[in-house]
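Take just one protein record:
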Amino acid sequence: MALFTVENLIAFLTLSALEIVLGIDNIVFIAIISNALPAEIQSRARKIGLLLAMGTRILLLLGITWVMGLTAPIFAVLGHVVTGRDIVLLAGGLFLIAKSTFEIHEKIEPDKGTEHVGRKVRGFAAAVTQIAILDIVFSLDSVITAVGMSGEIVVMVAAVVAAVLVMMLFADAISHFVSRHPTIQMLALSFLILIGVFLVAEGLGRHIDRGYIYFAMAFSLLVELLNLRARKADADGH
């Protein structure tokens, strides 16, 4: 079968766009984690995080038989058939909810004893490890989606690489914007809790249309951007 066909080109463009959309939550998580590091290594952490995301996706694509095997039943609980994918999504969702809740608590009620050194407490290795753990969850979901859309492994790998390169271009800008605006940080952490709940629901066999999730996130972000603009106009007026 010829590789350079109109069908494969459409599949490549569609998958690239899909990977970018699915990677938005990954970028938000990477921004939150990396912004807690010293300024001089934040950009490096973000790039390593996205490279890990790309590597994880490619490895899963190359191990396509194993990935698809994760959808095979393992056991059943209360009538729900549990698969390996369900376990990974459930564990990742709970981790994301717990991590985001901890970050929100830390910002609202910081420990006064560590307030001045809080940014240095979290090490580079710890931050990259947390990013890597969530990369596996996000990668698994997007890879299974990609496998369902294209039968060409080369097309899928090319789409993953293209999407990550695009995300790397905007990762620093997104992270700096989040860092400059505390309310955006809180909104981003709330998004992560929402994504965590979505992953838990998926892991429990309760499918939620991604469109609802993305609409809620886009609407909330639009309202907050209007608030930022209103506060800026009010400050300029005074």
Observations:
- The longest strand covers residues 73-77.
- The two ends are 67 Å apart (CA to CA).
- Strands lie at 73-77, 80-83.
- The chain has one domain: 6-237.
